[in-house]
Amino acid sequence: MTENLLDARAVRVQFGGLVAVNDVDFNIPTGSIVALIGPNGAGKTTFFNVLTGLYTPSHGQVDFDGKSVLGVAPHKIAASGMARTFQNIRLFGAMTASENVMVAMHPHLKSGVLSTIVRTPKQRREERDARLMAKELLEFVGIAGVDDEFAKNLPYGDQRRLEVARALALRPKLLLLDEPTAGMNPQESATFTQFVHRVRDQRGVTVLLIEHDMKVVMGVSERITVLEYGSKIAEGTPQDIRSDQRVIEAYLGKSGTEAAK
Amino acid sequence: MFTSLVERMQPTTDNGRTFARYSGILAVLVVAWLIPNYIATSTEGPLPLFTVVLCAVYALFALGLNIVVGFAGLLDLGYVAFFLFGAYTSAWLMSDFFYQVNPRDPSDKQFSFSVHFLSTASSKIAGIHLSFWIVIIAAAAIAAVAGLVIGAPTLRLKSDYLALVTLGFGEILPEVFRNGDNVAGYNLTNGTKGIGPVDRIGMGFLDKLPGIPSTIVSSDYKTKYYVILLFCALFMYASIKLRDGRLGRAWMAIREDELAASLMGVPLMRTKLWSYAVGAIAGGVGGAFYATIVGTVNVDNFTFSFSIIVLCAVILGGMGNVWGAVLGGVAITWFNYTGLVYIGAQVNKGLGTHINLKNYEFMFFGFVLVLMMLFRPEGFIPAARSKQLKKADKQVQSIETAGVES
């Protein structure tokens, strides 16, 4: 096992003249919970998209679990242990909660076309186990019993949880959560903080989250990286970040910080 | 209705439902057996046997396209390509077209071996003559490979673009076959003259069973019907099992959200190619069978309208529903080949008019499509999931309106 599960060096993403991510160095120690924060449009989601293989950076290097992910197809990166949720929930609406979770088991299941058609004992066993595992994951994220509900029909909070269950079905080493508490009330957010710890401690999953709710960020993360206009402006423990002048400026603006004085 | 019982999401251990499902399937089988024996007529009337056989062929096509369009959500407007490959496979391997192989006139002899294998054709006839059952496997394989070859470049495109490019392929391939009578000096397709006659279907050891001949003569539509029914049943079974398995889930995930699917570890190209290949197999088998029932293969049979008719069958029947695809294929084919003419004749008899309804075929077709889209856009037999989703939507709607009114 490498010390850093993820190692990104000098990553730069450019859309025409716009530099969305500007030479960012970033790493995630194995087994940690790390947050990526910054004002809207700072390039956080773009950075996620680089990690998961949707964008190829203009230059820079991204190593995940000791191997480069640049130019690797998204489904291969996912299968190698990087799972994510989405800022705007992207579930498979017309599929049940259980099926949603089982889709993400795709790389781990073996049944081919022929064994599925003739339903070999091995294929049946695999399907049964997959269904049980889906049930377990739904229980783990706290939505037990919704197995046969269509994802589209679930309440908003349950959809967020289902996304996490689906991501966990990939058996990830690294879980990327893109604004997981968006739209949650304070109680739900507080429960979520505990939940992230549970994911790390019980499942051994390293977590990286993008988050706007500072209470959540400060409560959950061991290390925080702050982006502004695509550049990294600060990095450190929650205490460091809280007192960092540049971060306060980025969030409140210069005049805001002066007024506060 | 048997459909709501048969068409379900997940295999369940609930005995009541299992019983209902099997009795539903039994009922369908009984009806399928009754049709050629008691309901259909030989030539005249509302349901001639020839039309019944064609209905079953189109049901098979609709089943195949349903995998691509219904399950994986890929709009394919070039399904005719697989029909064409299947039919030509029959023509090549079951006729005297390649007479150079095993010629009657020894001076023509270019190959020293004779290719007659379990065939119904006399060994004195020139050409390649393989057993129909081998040709079916060959046709399935050739169509599947064609699916992969056509799919590899086109499936990188999305939605409308995919539709356009597949349409292009559906137009190009018949032209290639039309001009295939002189490929570097070799005649591969016989051009516009077509290839025929295609050999009959041999039933092999099955002729020991009562009522089954050793060779299906051209007028024996009853046995032909049983053969195509067998293919339909096999393909339905395979469709349902695939839908409920690992691959089916991946297809559906791609249909719902391609990007999310790939980020959940579903390989997009490979999964889409599988849908193409499996769908193509039905087209190839249907095409090979079609060639044996009509006896000749002519490039004029393979038109764009074929792709559209099969697509309409899938949409009318209920996208993503196996029983819907069958019903859609049967209904459209019946109207096309017999329904309109028969209804027209009845109307003319009743009113003393002389209207040829067949001339207004596409008018009725369009009319039915508009009506369906207005009143039942999910098709005759919608997939169980779209039915339940619609119900949930209605509930939400009624709650919302109730909230507004109160």
Automatic annotation (TrEMBL), chain A:
InterPro entries from the UniProt entry: AAA+_ATPase (IPR003593), ABC_AA/LPS_Transport (IPR051120), ABC_transporter-like_ATP-bd (IPR003439), BCA_ABC_TP_C (IPR032823), P-loop_NTPase (IPR027417)
Which GO biological process annotations does it have? D-alanine transmembrane transport; L-alanine transport; L-isoleucine import across plasma membrane; L-valine import across plasma membrane
One MF term from GO for this chain? ATP hydrolysis activity
**SMART domains assigned:** AAA (SM00382)
Q: Which keywords annotate this record?
A: ATP-binding, Nucleotide-binding, Transport
Question: Keyword Membrane on this protein?
Answer: no
Q: Which residues form the ABC transporter domain?
A: 6-254
The entry's cellular-component GO terms read:
plasma membrane
Name of the molecule in the record: Unannotated protein
Question: What's the source species' lineage?
Answer: unclassified sequences, metagenomes, ecological metagenomes
UniProtKB/TrEMBL annotation, chain B:
Give any GO molecular function from the UniProt entry: branched-chain amino acid transmembrane transporter activity
Gene Ontology CC, one term: plasma membrane
Segments passing through the bilayer:
20-40, 47-71, 77-99, 130-152, 225-242, 273-296, 302-319, 326-345, 357-375
Keywords on record: Cell membrane, Membrane, Transmembrane, Transmembrane helix
Membrane-protein topology:
Multi-pass membrane protein
**Pfam family name, one:** BPD_transp_2
Source species: freshwater metagenome
Residues in a coiled coil are none
Query: Where does it live in the cell?
Result: Cell membrane
Q: Provide the protein name.
A: Unannotated protein
